[in-house]
Amino acid sequence: MVGYSWPSEAELNELKKEVAEMAKRTTEEVRVVVSPYRICPLGAHIDHQGGAVSAMTINKGVVLAFVPSGNLEMVLRSAQFGGEVKFRVDESHHPKKAAKANESINSIGSTKLEEECCWGRYAKGAVYALNSKGNVLSQGIIGLISGSSGLDSSGLSSSAAVGVAYLLALENANNISVSPTENIEYDRLIENEYLGLNNGILDQSAILLSRQGCLTFMDCKTKEYKLINLKENDIDGVQKSYKILLACSGLKHALTSGVGYNRRVAECQEAARILLDAAGKHEVEAVLSNVEREVYEAHKDKLEPLLARRAEHYFSENMRVRKGIEAWASGRMDDFGKLITASGRSSIQNYECGCKPLIDLYEVLLRAPGVYGARFSGAGFRGCCIALVNADLASEAASFVKREYNKLQPELVSKIDQEAAVLICESADGARVIAAP
């Protein structure tokens, strides 16, 4: 915990106290999982196509305090949302697509609780994922989950952080030993099968694999990954320390309820199918990572303009990731930042995500003092933007962004918790159990 501002000792003590009261246990019996949010400097929107991505976790995220229930019951509360979720780990939990047809199957009224306390669906998804892979859950948990105070976590993969937190807690309570790569698959089941979101594995991979001070590189086709340390000095021998800026736009939009994300995934797949068919590879899975660059260059004229833009984003972003890890490993933060900014441009022009408020915030960040590079965070349909900034100028940059964005979007700014409007963050370790008897 040394060097971390999150979670604070006071926050941990408060969560432990409340769980102890819920479960009628002592605070010493309470266990804690921390599951950080992630940022993706490079590799936007290509993980679902098997592309190369980069990520790191930050010192903000989800904390889940819990005790094993001693029976099959799950009892959960949230620090951010009302109500209490109760269900059993031996219930049948059906994926989103099947839930409506089978909603009467729950004998203890979990469907009604799902409607009243929809945040509980991630816990149910974790139970679904573990059970579907043959794990035997002999007991549930009594727990309280809390996200970082005041922060709009849209675009920071808070959903994956929540799913991972529940997985780690259930595994810990049931003495199930699971590798990080297995948990990546389990969380994919939560997101893809249970919740019906067609995303890739970047989010959960970053949350489970990242380490403080490193850039996590992952090939989403082969599942191979490596942690890359930032070279301490640049080529001139001058220290290039950095901080991470999180700038909230004030936009809120539920990713799983919209069609924008899933539609773009389908468009990438359609582009891949056209390119593969043109190359005579009719039996190959239609994802862009299965299209060689030479095939793309030879047949891209067969793509209609919209699909051509999606494919161009994939191939250019994949190249930016490769160049980016070289720049990071060499300590060339300026070059790394330029690639981040180019990623943001391609997300706007080729992938066509974002809207005026997010684009305004992105442009403001690029003008802020000391910023190396900036882009949208997450899917780019809501939430926040990220920037890497010279550590010595981080406070000045944060003040600049607050002031200038307010000039452009005063109505949205009025809805933001001003203490969390622009946060200065640091790299952090990935998800883990930090307190257990």
Automatic annotation (TrEMBL):
GO molecular function, one term: metal ion binding
Pfam families, sorted: GHMP_kinases_C, GHMP_kinases_N
Keywords from the UniProt entry: ATP-binding, Carbohydrate metabolism, Kinase, Magnesium, Metal-binding, Nucleotide-binding, Transferase
InterPro entries registered for this protein in UniProt: GHMP_kinase_C_dom, GHMP_kinase_C_sf, GHMP_kinase_N_dom, Mevalonate/galactokinase, Ribosomal_Su5_D2-typ_SF, Ribsml_uS5_D2-typ_fold_subgr
Domain of life of the native organism: Eukaryota
Gene Ontology BP terms: carbohydrate phosphorylation; D-galacturonate metabolic process; galactose metabolic process
Positions of the GHMP kinase N-terminal domain: 122-210
GHMP kinase C-terminal domain: residues covered: 328-406
UniProt GO cellular component terms: cytosol
Designated name of the protein: Galacturonokinase
Organism: Chenopodium quinoa (Quinoa)
Record gene name: LOC110692284
